[in-house]
Amino acid sequence: MREKDGHWMQRAIQLARQGIGLTRPNPPVGAVLVKSGRIVGQGWHRQAGTAHAEVKAIQAAGSKAKGATLYVTLEPCSTFGKTPPCTEAILQSGIRRVVIGCLDPNPVHHGRGVRILRSSGIEVTVGVQREDSLRLVEAFSKWVRTGRPWVTLKMALSIDGRVADASGNSRWITGKEARRSVHDLRRTADAIMVGKRTALLDDPTLLPRPALGRKPLRIVLDSHGSLPLRLRLFTDGHSEQTVVFTSWRVRRGWVERVRATGASIVRVRRRVRGLDLNQVLLRLGEMGVMHLLCEGGGQLAGNLVRARLVDRLVLYFGPRLLGECSLPGFVLGRIVLARAPRLFIESVSRAGDSIQVTAHLQ
Question: 54, 177, 286, 324: which is the annotated catalytic residue?
């Protein structure tokens, strides 16, 4: 690794972050072309079916790409898909050296692009800013290996761990800065999911504001087929983004009425505690959802945690105490301390008057 490699890779990572939430089913990727210590071209992948980051950077550089060094967050693709392989564009451009943040997590392609480039005489360095590069593609990595989306569980909680008062009112437990942070989080997701009770109590749109080009699917779980069609999920002009997961036992008439709004219906098995969440995640994976953001409520959050289906928790604690008669953040049933789910705390930060805790299950 050379002295400035980390610096230029950080720029590529910054570019890649602009594509998060836009590229499904492709991962977000950023690329920078450097020659004589200056950027001569850069780009990021904006949407599946359009030019990849490396090609955008090469196009921006033009003839200056010859003899330059390419910094790219993910190993260049080496097969034909909706677009030609990036390795071919790199070879044709005359690039002298390629620096890669991390290898392609897809077992079918892992290391193949590197081998092609090296066998053609291009110097290749792998692993520069590896951890940050891997974080960019963690959702894609899980999806391509397991067929399931990466699951982020977001909860807005009082200091004593409650999501709403006794009447179900939750507006607002956290402050404006925390809610603004939630919209940032929504823009990273391919789909946003809630349970039926949250849909009924909050009547949410589940849309990021501002959207900035993002169009996440809006997932609602309703095992009995009883959601009223007056909810904003069906009436706000974005019903084509709404997908209702329900069981095979629901009435055909209700299913037809939901579909008439423009929303979609997906049927899965029903279990004792609700719909089969494993099957829900697999169906979402089949739909190309790489990152699923779950926003509760307490029953759904508890079921996901109990089944160990959560990859990361983002918990916002607002400066409120709601007491024992309010609604709990996690409905986990009767558990003893020795068997209680344990979290590894990744970070703790302030979001205005609220506290944000990011963690994962141990």
Answer: 54
